Amino acid sequence: MERDEALALLRRCVASPSHIAHSHATAAIMRKVAEHLGEDAGTWEVIGLLHDIDYDIVGGDMERHGVEGCRILIDNGVSEEIADIVRRHNHLLTSGYERPVEVALQAADSVSGLIIACALVKGGEIDEVTPRTVKKKFKEKAFAAGCERERIRMIESLMDLETFYRLAIEGLKEVRGDIGLT
Ligand SMILES: [Fe+2]
User: Fold this and answer.
1) Which residues surround ligand 1, an ion (CB under 5 A)?
2) Where are the domains of the chain?
3) pTM for the complete prediction?
């Protein structure tokens, strides 16, 4: 599935602007990480866009999160491989991520909120956020407390955290207009 198609499907299934923004953010980070690793950037970006496709349907029921997303994607002609990655990304139901794409999704999903929170304390300016800013805020457990640090740290099996932060910030700069930042 192409990016435009994935975005159209996301918009049909998810109403919340903040969750569409979260999907854009995760997708942009996935693209950058894939490029860095020499992986399929287009596919990783689409996975980022689609990973929370069931957000409105499950309405906070984490027992169904991912499971419903997988079903929606299959029903809409998305490949079983991508649908299964989306199903498995619910870390409450899955353990042991080894594939780089799944590891990256865990980390991108969690770091996106942390970096956006860093930008918001700087007036919404993503250009003001550096890997150093993120490193500092990572250590403040109360800051953006919902962004699970241990899921971010999974990326260390693929690269060091500083490199990951740099890539993630670069990705978010490219979609600043879609995620409410300047
Ligand atoms: Fe997510």
Assistant:
1) 52, 109
2) 3-178
3) 0.97
